[in-house]
Design goal:
With about 400 residues, this protein is an alpha+beta fold. It has helices at about 1-5, 130-165, 175-205, 215-245, 255-265, 275-280, 290-300, 305-325, 330-335, 335-360, 365-375, 385-395, and strands spanning about 15-20, 35, 45-55, 60-65, 75-80, 85, 90, 95-100, 110-120, 165, 170. It starts with a helix and ends with a helix.
Protein backbone atom coordinates (compact mmCIF):
# COMPACT_ATOMS: atom_id res chain seq x y z
CA UNK A 1 0.00 0.00 0.00
CA UNK A 2 2.72 2.58 0.78
CA UNK A 3 3.88 2.33 -2.84
CA UNK A 4 0.38 3.05 -4.16
CA UNK A 5 -0.33 5.89 -1.73
CA UNK A 6 3.03 7.59 -2.24
CA UNK A 7 3.37 10.82 -4.19
CA UNK A 8 7.15 10.51 -4.16
CA UNK A 9 8.56 9.59 -7.56
CA UNK A 10 11.29 7.51 -5.90
CA UNK A 11 8.84 5.18 -4.18
CA UNK A 12 5.48 5.26 -5.94
CA UNK A 13 4.32 2.34 -8.02
CA UNK A 14 2.26 2.38 -11.18
CA UNK A 15 -0.43 -0.24 -11.56
CA UNK A 16 -1.89 -1.55 -14.80
CA UNK A 17 -5.12 -3.41 -15.41
CA UNK A 18 -5.03 -6.56 -17.50
CA UNK A 19 -8.44 -7.47 -18.72
CA UNK A 20 -8.64 -7.28 -22.52
CA UNK A 21 -7.78 -10.49 -24.38
CA UNK A 22 -7.91 -11.32 -28.07
CA UNK A 23 -11.36 -12.84 -27.90
CA UNK A 24 -12.52 -11.13 -24.73
CA UNK A 25 -12.42 -7.33 -24.85
CA UNK A 26 -15.82 -5.81 -24.20
CA UNK A 27 -16.97 -9.40 -23.81
CA UNK A 28 -14.62 -9.93 -20.89
CA UNK A 29 -16.48 -13.08 -19.84
CA UNK A 30 -14.62 -14.87 -22.65
CA UNK A 31 -11.31 -14.44 -20.76
CA UNK A 32 -8.98 -17.40 -21.38
CA UNK A 33 -6.23 -16.66 -18.84
CA UNK A 34 -6.11 -19.43 -16.26
CA UNK A 35 -5.06 -19.17 -12.61
CA UNK A 36 -3.46 -22.33 -11.25
CA UNK A 37 -2.53 -22.99 -7.66
CA UNK A 38 0.85 -24.61 -6.78
CA UNK A 39 1.17 -27.35 -4.20
CA UNK A 40 2.41 -24.67 -1.77
CA UNK A 41 -0.77 -22.62 -2.33
CA UNK A 42 0.75 -19.90 -4.57
CA UNK A 43 -1.52 -18.87 -7.46
CA UNK A 44 0.08 -18.39 -10.89
CA UNK A 45 -1.40 -16.88 -14.07
CA UNK A 46 -1.07 -18.47 -17.49
CA UNK A 47 -2.42 -16.72 -20.59
CA UNK A 48 -2.20 -13.81 -22.98
CA UNK A 49 -3.39 -10.24 -22.50
CA UNK A 50 -3.92 -8.34 -25.74
CA UNK A 51 -3.84 -4.75 -24.50
CA UNK A 52 -1.83 -3.80 -21.50
CA UNK A 53 -1.00 -0.15 -20.97
CA UNK A 54 1.24 0.84 -18.09
CA UNK A 55 3.29 -2.21 -19.00
CA UNK A 56 6.23 -0.41 -17.43
CA UNK A 57 4.35 -0.41 -14.12
CA UNK A 58 5.28 -2.40 -11.06
CA UNK A 59 1.91 -4.09 -10.51
CA UNK A 60 -1.42 -4.88 -12.13
CA UNK A 61 -4.91 -6.12 -11.46
CA UNK A 62 -5.70 -9.04 -13.74
CA UNK A 63 -8.77 -11.08 -14.50
CA UNK A 64 -8.30 -14.84 -14.76
CA UNK A 65 -10.37 -17.99 -14.51
CA UNK A 66 -9.37 -20.25 -11.60
CA UNK A 67 -8.51 -23.68 -12.94
CA UNK A 68 -11.61 -25.88 -13.12
CA UNK A 69 -14.08 -22.96 -12.77
CA UNK A 70 -17.08 -22.76 -15.10
CA UNK A 71 -17.34 -20.59 -18.25
CA UNK A 72 -18.71 -17.07 -18.21
CA UNK A 73 -17.99 -13.81 -16.41
CA UNK A 74 -19.24 -14.75 -12.91
CA UNK A 75 -16.52 -17.41 -12.52
CA UNK A 76 -13.66 -14.99 -13.24
CA UNK A 77 -11.53 -13.92 -10.29
CA UNK A 78 -9.53 -10.76 -9.74
CA UNK A 79 -5.82 -11.11 -9.00
CA UNK A 80 -3.06 -8.75 -7.93
CA UNK A 81 0.32 -9.28 -9.58
CA UNK A 82 3.73 -7.68 -9.30
CA UNK A 83 5.80 -7.34 -12.44
CA UNK A 84 9.29 -6.70 -11.10
CA UNK A 85 11.79 -8.70 -9.11
CA UNK A 86 14.02 -5.93 -7.80
CA UNK A 87 15.14 -4.02 -10.90
CA UNK A 88 14.46 -6.91 -13.29
CA UNK A 89 11.15 -7.71 -14.95
CA UNK A 90 9.90 -11.06 -13.69
CA UNK A 91 10.71 -13.83 -16.21
CA UNK A 92 7.11 -15.13 -16.09
CA UNK A 93 5.92 -11.86 -17.70
CA UNK A 94 6.84 -11.72 -21.39
CA UNK A 95 6.25 -8.64 -23.54
CA UNK A 96 5.43 -10.01 -26.99
CA UNK A 97 5.29 -6.66 -28.73
CA UNK A 98 4.46 -3.00 -28.30
CA UNK A 99 1.37 -1.78 -30.11
CA UNK A 100 1.87 0.59 -33.03
CA UNK A 101 -0.86 3.02 -32.00
CA UNK A 102 -2.72 5.94 -33.59
CA UNK A 103 -2.00 8.14 -30.55
CA UNK A 104 -1.06 8.11 -26.84
CA UNK A 105 2.51 7.44 -27.91
CA UNK A 106 3.91 8.47 -24.52
CA UNK A 107 2.17 5.47 -22.99
CA UNK A 108 3.52 2.11 -24.11
CA UNK A 109 0.74 -0.41 -24.66
CA UNK A 110 1.82 -4.02 -25.05
CA UNK A 111 0.69 -7.50 -25.88
CA UNK A 112 1.97 -9.73 -23.13
CA UNK A 113 1.84 -13.32 -22.09
CA UNK A 114 1.91 -14.69 -18.59
CA UNK A 115 3.87 -17.84 -18.05
CA UNK A 116 3.11 -18.70 -14.43
CA UNK A 117 3.31 -15.15 -13.02
CA UNK A 118 2.73 -15.26 -9.21
CA UNK A 119 -0.65 -13.77 -8.32
CA UNK A 120 -2.77 -13.13 -5.24
CA UNK A 121 -6.56 -13.27 -5.35
CA UNK A 122 -8.41 -10.14 -4.25
CA UNK A 123 -11.56 -11.04 -2.41
CA UNK A 124 -13.45 -14.22 -3.23
CA UNK A 125 -12.32 -16.46 -6.08
CA UNK A 126 -15.21 -15.40 -8.33
CA UNK A 127 -17.15 -12.30 -9.41
CA UNK A 128 -13.89 -10.62 -10.46
CA UNK A 129 -15.71 -8.27 -12.82
CA UNK A 130 -17.85 -7.01 -9.96
CA UNK A 131 -14.76 -6.65 -7.77
CA UNK A 132 -12.87 -4.62 -10.33
CA UNK A 133 -15.81 -2.18 -10.66
CA UNK A 134 -14.51 0.31 -8.05
CA UNK A 135 -11.29 0.59 -10.03
CA UNK A 136 -13.27 1.07 -13.25
CA UNK A 137 -15.21 3.91 -11.60
CA UNK A 138 -11.91 5.65 -11.01
CA UNK A 139 -10.40 4.98 -14.43
CA UNK A 140 -13.63 6.02 -16.17
CA UNK A 141 -13.72 9.22 -14.15
CA UNK A 142 -10.08 9.77 -14.99
CA UNK A 143 -10.98 9.28 -18.67
CA UNK A 144 -13.74 11.88 -18.35
CA UNK A 145 -11.47 14.43 -16.72
CA UNK A 146 -8.77 13.86 -19.35
CA UNK A 147 -11.32 14.19 -22.17
CA UNK A 148 -12.37 17.54 -20.71
CA UNK A 149 -8.71 18.57 -20.38
CA UNK A 150 -8.08 17.79 -24.05
CA UNK A 151 -11.13 19.85 -25.01
CA UNK A 152 -9.92 22.76 -22.87
CA UNK A 153 -6.52 22.70 -24.54
CA UNK A 154 -7.92 22.44 -28.06
CA UNK A 155 -10.35 25.25 -27.41
CA UNK A 156 -7.86 27.60 -25.82
CA UNK A 157 -5.43 27.12 -28.71
CA UNK A 158 -8.20 27.72 -31.26
CA UNK A 159 -9.41 30.85 -29.44
CA UNK A 160 -5.92 32.23 -29.18
CA UNK A 161 -5.25 31.60 -32.86
CA UNK A 162 -8.49 33.36 -33.79
CA UNK A 163 -7.17 36.58 -32.26
CA UNK A 164 -3.95 36.40 -34.31
CA UNK A 165 -4.94 35.07 -37.71
CA UNK A 166 -6.33 37.65 -40.14
CA UNK A 167 -8.70 36.70 -42.95
CA UNK A 168 -10.73 38.98 -45.18
CA UNK A 169 -9.39 42.08 -43.44
CA UNK A 170 -9.99 41.26 -39.80
CA UNK A 171 -9.01 38.72 -37.13
CA UNK A 172 -10.92 35.44 -37.30
CA UNK A 173 -12.45 36.15 -33.89
CA UNK A 174 -14.30 39.07 -35.50
CA UNK A 175 -15.74 36.92 -38.28
CA UNK A 176 -19.28 36.20 -37.04
CA UNK A 177 -19.39 32.59 -38.20
CA UNK A 178 -15.98 31.73 -36.80
CA UNK A 179 -16.87 33.38 -33.47
CA UNK A 180 -20.15 31.43 -33.41
CA UNK A 181 -18.26 28.19 -34.07
CA UNK A 182 -15.92 28.85 -31.15
CA UNK A 183 -18.77 29.84 -28.84
CA UNK A 184 -20.65 26.65 -29.75
CA UNK A 185 -17.58 24.65 -28.76
CA UNK A 186 -17.22 26.64 -25.55
CA UNK A 187 -20.81 25.91 -24.47
CA UNK A 188 -20.41 22.17 -25.09
CA UNK A 189 -17.10 22.18 -23.24
CA UNK A 190 -18.64 23.93 -20.23
CA UNK A 191 -21.42 21.34 -20.06
CA UNK A 192 -18.84 18.54 -20.20
CA UNK A 193 -16.73 20.25 -17.55
CA UNK A 194 -19.70 20.59 -15.20
CA UNK A 195 -20.68 16.93 -15.55
CA UNK A 196 -17.08 15.67 -15.24
CA UNK A 197 -16.46 17.45 -11.97
CA UNK A 198 -19.84 16.56 -10.53
CA UNK A 199 -18.86 12.92 -11.05
CA UNK A 200 -15.47 13.55 -9.40
CA UNK A 201 -17.27 15.24 -6.49
CA UNK A 202 -19.69 12.32 -6.09
CA UNK A 203 -16.85 9.80 -6.30
CA UNK A 204 -15.06 11.64 -3.51
CA UNK A 205 -18.16 11.64 -1.33
CA UNK A 206 -18.78 7.94 -1.92
CA UNK A 207 -15.14 7.00 -1.22
CA UNK A 208 -15.15 9.03 2.00
CA UNK A 209 -18.40 7.48 3.16
CA UNK A 210 -20.16 10.86 3.26
CA UNK A 211 -22.52 10.31 0.31
CA UNK A 212 -26.26 9.97 0.78
CA UNK A 213 -27.82 6.76 -0.61
CA UNK A 214 -29.21 8.56 -3.66
CA UNK A 215 -25.73 10.00 -4.40
CA UNK A 216 -24.20 6.52 -4.55
CA UNK A 217 -26.99 5.49 -6.96
CA UNK A 218 -26.36 8.63 -8.97
CA UNK A 219 -22.62 7.95 -9.21
CA UNK A 220 -23.29 4.46 -10.58
CA UNK A 221 -25.32 6.00 -13.42
CA UNK A 222 -23.34 9.19 -14.06
CA UNK A 223 -19.94 7.47 -14.29
CA UNK A 224 -20.65 5.64 -17.58
CA UNK A 225 -22.80 8.51 -18.89
CA UNK A 226 -20.05 11.08 -18.34
CA UNK A 227 -17.37 8.81 -19.77
CA UNK A 228 -19.26 7.94 -22.94
CA UNK A 229 -20.48 11.46 -23.70
CA UNK A 230 -17.22 13.32 -22.99
CA UNK A 231 -15.19 10.69 -24.88
CA UNK A 232 -17.16 11.31 -28.05
CA UNK A 233 -17.30 15.06 -27.51
CA UNK A 234 -13.52 15.29 -27.14
CA UNK A 235 -13.04 13.76 -30.60
CA UNK A 236 -15.60 16.13 -32.11
CA UNK A 237 -14.21 19.21 -30.41
CA UNK A 238 -10.58 18.41 -31.14
CA UNK A 239 -11.47 17.81 -34.79
CA UNK A 240 -13.29 21.16 -34.94
CA UNK A 241 -10.33 22.86 -33.23
CA UNK A 242 -7.96 21.53 -35.90
CA UNK A 243 -10.26 22.95 -38.56
CA UNK A 244 -10.14 26.32 -36.76
CA UNK A 245 -6.45 26.42 -37.71
CA UNK A 246 -7.21 25.76 -41.38
CA UNK A 247 -4.48 23.79 -43.15
CA UNK A 248 -2.04 24.32 -40.29
CA UNK A 249 -4.21 22.14 -38.08
CA UNK A 250 -3.37 19.15 -40.28
CA UNK A 251 0.38 19.66 -40.16
CA UNK A 252 2.39 17.60 -37.71
CA UNK A 253 4.95 20.21 -36.67
CA UNK A 254 2.20 22.42 -35.21
CA UNK A 255 1.60 19.70 -32.62
CA UNK A 256 -2.13 19.93 -33.32
CA UNK A 257 -2.76 16.54 -34.98
CA UNK A 258 -1.66 14.86 -31.77
CA UNK A 259 -4.65 16.40 -29.98
CA UNK A 260 -7.03 14.58 -32.31
CA UNK A 261 -5.07 11.33 -32.33
CA UNK A 262 -4.95 11.22 -28.54
CA UNK A 263 -8.62 12.19 -28.17
CA UNK A 264 -9.79 9.17 -30.17
CA UNK A 265 -8.77 6.82 -27.38
CA UNK A 266 -11.22 8.35 -24.88
CA UNK A 267 -14.09 6.70 -26.70
CA UNK A 268 -12.33 3.34 -26.86
CA UNK A 269 -10.64 2.27 -23.69
CA UNK A 270 -12.38 1.80 -20.35
CA UNK A 271 -15.41 0.67 -22.35
CA UNK A 272 -16.53 1.89 -25.78
CA UNK A 273 -19.48 4.24 -26.30
CA UNK A 274 -21.87 1.42 -27.08
CA UNK A 275 -20.68 -0.84 -24.30
CA UNK A 276 -21.08 1.98 -21.76
CA UNK A 277 -24.50 2.86 -23.18
CA UNK A 278 -25.57 -0.70 -22.37
CA UNK A 279 -23.91 -0.39 -18.97
CA UNK A 280 -26.00 2.75 -18.33
CA UNK A 281 -29.12 0.67 -18.93
CA UNK A 282 -27.86 -1.90 -16.42
CA UNK A 283 -27.24 0.95 -13.98
CA UNK A 284 -30.94 1.79 -13.92
CA UNK A 285 -31.83 -1.19 -11.77
CA UNK A 286 -31.64 0.44 -8.32
CA UNK A 287 -33.70 3.62 -8.29
CA UNK A 288 -31.08 5.50 -10.30
CA UNK A 289 -33.62 7.25 -12.51
CA UNK A 290 -35.44 8.58 -9.45
CA UNK A 291 -32.10 9.73 -8.02
CA UNK A 292 -31.33 11.43 -11.33
CA UNK A 293 -34.69 13.22 -11.40
CA UNK A 294 -34.20 14.40 -7.81
CA UNK A 295 -30.70 15.68 -8.56
CA UNK A 296 -31.73 17.41 -11.79
CA UNK A 297 -34.70 19.02 -10.05
CA UNK A 298 -32.30 20.33 -7.43
CA UNK A 299 -29.64 21.56 -9.88
CA UNK A 300 -31.90 23.37 -12.29
CA UNK A 301 -33.12 25.76 -9.61
CA UNK A 302 -31.21 28.61 -11.25
CA UNK A 303 -32.61 28.06 -14.74
CA UNK A 304 -34.99 30.41 -16.54
CA UNK A 305 -38.40 28.99 -17.45
CA UNK A 306 -37.48 28.16 -21.04
CA UNK A 307 -34.29 26.28 -20.10
CA UNK A 308 -35.95 24.41 -17.25
CA UNK A 309 -38.83 23.46 -19.57
CA UNK A 310 -36.39 22.12 -22.18
CA UNK A 311 -34.60 19.98 -19.60
CA UNK A 312 -37.74 18.54 -18.11
CA UNK A 313 -39.20 17.86 -21.57
CA UNK A 314 -36.05 15.94 -22.62
CA UNK A 315 -36.03 14.00 -19.35
CA UNK A 316 -39.73 13.12 -19.72
CA UNK A 317 -39.09 12.01 -23.29
CA UNK A 318 -36.23 9.77 -22.13
CA UNK A 319 -38.40 8.17 -19.44
CA UNK A 320 -41.25 7.63 -21.88
CA UNK A 321 -38.81 6.10 -24.36
CA UNK A 322 -37.51 3.75 -21.68
CA UNK A 323 -41.02 2.69 -20.62
CA UNK A 324 -41.95 2.09 -24.23
CA UNK A 325 -38.94 -0.07 -25.06
CA UNK A 326 -38.21 -1.71 -21.70
CA UNK A 327 -39.90 -4.96 -22.62
CA UNK A 328 -38.20 -5.25 -26.04
CA UNK A 329 -34.56 -6.06 -25.45
CA UNK A 330 -33.52 -5.67 -29.12
CA UNK A 331 -34.98 -2.18 -29.54
CA UNK A 332 -33.85 -1.16 -26.06
CA UNK A 333 -30.26 -2.01 -26.96
CA UNK A 334 -30.53 -0.46 -30.42
CA UNK A 335 -31.54 2.88 -28.91
CA UNK A 336 -29.29 2.74 -25.83
CA UNK A 337 -26.75 5.23 -27.14
CA UNK A 338 -29.37 7.89 -27.89
CA UNK A 339 -30.94 7.31 -24.50
CA UNK A 340 -27.60 7.61 -22.67
CA UNK A 341 -26.61 10.76 -24.57
CA UNK A 342 -29.97 12.34 -23.74
CA UNK A 343 -29.54 11.66 -20.03
CA UNK A 344 -25.96 12.95 -20.10
CA UNK A 345 -27.00 16.17 -21.85
CA UNK A 346 -29.90 16.71 -19.43
CA UNK A 347 -27.53 16.36 -16.47
CA UNK A 348 -24.97 18.69 -18.01
CA UNK A 349 -27.66 21.29 -18.74
CA UNK A 350 -28.99 21.11 -15.18
CA UNK A 351 -25.47 21.53 -13.79
CA UNK A 352 -24.93 24.53 -16.06
CA UNK A 353 -28.19 25.93 -14.68
CA UNK A 354 -26.89 25.52 -11.14
CA UNK A 355 -23.73 27.40 -12.07
CA UNK A 356 -25.74 30.04 -13.96
CA UNK A 357 -27.90 30.74 -10.90
CA UNK A 358 -24.87 31.04 -8.63
CA UNK A 359 -22.96 33.30 -11.04
CA UNK A 360 -25.97 35.51 -11.87
CA UNK A 361 -26.28 36.40 -8.20
CA UNK A 362 -22.68 37.61 -8.36
CA UNK A 363 -23.25 39.68 -11.48
CA UNK A 364 -21.68 37.25 -13.98
CA UNK A 365 -24.02 36.51 -16.92
CA UNK A 366 -21.55 34.29 -18.79
CA UNK A 367 -22.66 30.88 -17.41
CA UNK A 368 -26.25 31.76 -18.31
CA UNK A 369 -25.07 32.27 -21.88
CA UNK A 370 -23.37 28.84 -21.79
CA UNK A 371 -26.62 27.29 -20.56
CA UNK A 372 -28.71 28.99 -23.25
CA UNK A 373 -26.34 27.95 -26.03
CA UNK A 374 -26.02 24.38 -24.74
CA UNK A 375 -29.79 23.99 -24.65
CA UNK A 376 -29.98 25.53 -28.10
CA UNK A 377 -27.88 22.61 -29.36
CA UNK A 378 -30.65 20.29 -28.18
CA UNK A 379 -30.80 17.80 -25.35
CA UNK A 380 -32.88 15.03 -26.87
CA UNK A 381 -30.81 12.47 -28.79
CA UNK A 382 -33.40 9.68 -28.64
CA UNK A 383 -33.81 7.47 -31.66
CA UNK A 384 -36.65 5.26 -32.83
CA UNK A 385 -34.99 1.88 -33.06
CA UNK A 386 -36.37 0.69 -36.39
CA UNK A 387 -34.91 -2.78 -36.39
CA UNK A 388 -36.23 -3.53 -39.89
CA UNK A 389 -34.55 -0.48 -41.39
CA UNK A 390 -31.27 -1.45 -39.78
CA UNK A 391 -31.50 -4.89 -41.34
CA UNK A 392 -32.33 -3.35 -44.73
CA UNK A 393 -29.48 -0.86 -44.54
CA UNK A 394 -26.96 -3.53 -43.65
CA UNK A 395 -28.38 -6.07 -46.10
C1 LIG B 1 -4.44 2.50 -26.51
C2 LIG B 1 -5.20 1.43 -25.81
C3 LIG B 1 -4.79 1.00 -24.55
C4 LIG B 1 -5.49 0.00 -23.87
N1 LIG B 1 -5.03 -0.41 -22.66
C5 LIG B 1 -5.66 -1.42 -22.02
C6 LIG B 1 -5.20 -1.90 -20.75
O1 LIG B 1 -4.24 -1.40 -20.17
N2 LIG B 1 -5.85 -2.94 -20.18
C7 LIG B 1 -6.93 -3.52 -20.75
O2 LIG B 1 -7.48 -4.46 -20.17
N3 LIG B 1 -7.40 -3.10 -21.95
C8 LIG B 1 -6.80 -2.05 -22.59
N4 LIG B 1 -7.26 -1.60 -23.80
C9 LIG B 1 -8.35 -2.34 -24.44
C10 LIG B 1 -9.67 -1.62 -24.50
O3 LIG B 1 -10.21 -1.46 -23.23
C11 LIG B 1 -10.56 -2.46 -25.45
O4 LIG B 1 -9.99 -2.37 -26.73
C12 LIG B 1 -11.97 -1.97 -25.46
O5 LIG B 1 -12.58 -2.20 -24.21
C13 LIG B 1 -12.82 -2.64 -26.56
O6 LIG B 1 -12.65 -4.02 -26.56
P1 LIG B 1 -12.28 -4.80 -27.92
O7 LIG B 1 -11.03 -4.17 -28.45
O8 LIG B 1 -12.28 -6.24 -27.67
O9 LIG B 1 -13.42 -4.42 -28.93
P2 LIG B 1 -14.76 -5.25 -29.19
O10 LIG B 1 -15.34 -5.64 -27.90
O11 LIG B 1 -14.50 -6.30 -30.20
O12 LIG B 1 -15.68 -4.11 -29.82
C14 LIG B 1 -15.73 -3.81 -31.23
C15 LIG B 1 -16.93 -2.91 -31.47
O13 LIG B 1 -18.11 -3.60 -31.12
C16 LIG B 1 -18.89 -2.81 -30.25
N5 LIG B 1 -19.60 -3.71 -29.34
C17 LIG B 1 -19.09 -4.74 -28.63
N6 LIG B 1 -20.07 -5.34 -27.94
C18 LIG B 1 -21.21 -4.68 -28.22
C19 LIG B 1 -22.57 -4.83 -27.84
N7 LIG B 1 -22.96 -5.80 -26.99
N8 LIG B 1 -23.49 -3.98 -28.34
C20 LIG B 1 -23.13 -2.98 -29.17
N9 LIG B 1 -21.86 -2.79 -29.58
C21 LIG B 1 -20.92 -3.63 -29.12
C22 LIG B 1 -17.93 -1.90 -29.54
O14 LIG B 1 -18.58 -0.72 -29.10
C23 LIG B 1 -16.92 -1.63 -30.63
O15 LIG B 1 -17.36 -0.56 -31.43
C24 LIG B 1 -6.61 -0.57 -24.48
C25 LIG B 1 -7.04 -0.14 -25.73
C26 LIG B 1 -6.36 0.86 -26.38
C27 LIG B 1 -6.84 1.32 -27.74
Amino acid sequence: MPHFLSRDAASFWLSGQWMTETIGGSDVGATETIAKQDADGQWRLHGRKWFSSAVVGEAALALARPEGATDGPAALALFYVETMDGRQRRPELVIDRLKDKLGTHELPTAEIHLDGLPAWPLGELAHGVRQVAPMLNITRTWNTVCAVASMARALSLARDYATRRQAFGRPLIEQPLHARTLADMQAEFEGAFALAFEVAHLLGRVEHGTAAAHEAALLRLLTPLAKLWTGKLAVKLCSEALECFGGAGYIEDTGLPQLLRDAQVYALWEGTTNVLSLDSLRALGGGQLTALRTAIGHWLGGADGRSAGAMLAALDAAETWLDHHAAHRESLEAGARGFALTLARCCAAALLARQAGWSAQRGDPRPTAALRRFIDHGLDRLVSPEIDDTALLLG
